[in-house]
């Protein structure tokens, strides 16, 4: 599955419009980095990808199993250590309005790890750049 997004940045420092199909979002940098803090910064978008994919993957599985779970909360903290080339994603998942057994929670942990974004982040990543 391939996706295409386009980011456009004019002269307003770091205020970037991102388009994917018919959807748009704004990214920006915090004010302490020269931006206006009008949108997610790029690291927040990366963490958002893991959080939202995890939540959707869990919801699909929970619905298929017909388990009664009101709400799935996924919090992701991303720490980047450029000097050691290490990025650490800390993911905390909680379920509201449910009584899940230890066995169900164990299965949901495996399902969370099977989310497509999680898999991509664990793979070797190659970035190919072309100027046009």
TrEMBL record:
Q: Show the InterPro entries listed in the entry.
A: KH_dom-like_a/b, OsmC/Ohr_fam, OsmC/Ohrsf
Q: Which Gene3D superfamilies match?
A: 3.30.300.20
Top-level lineage group = Bacteria
Q: What is this protein called?
A: OsmC family protein
Lineage of the source organism? Bacteria, Pseudomonadati, Bacteroidota, Flavobacteriia, Flavobacteriales
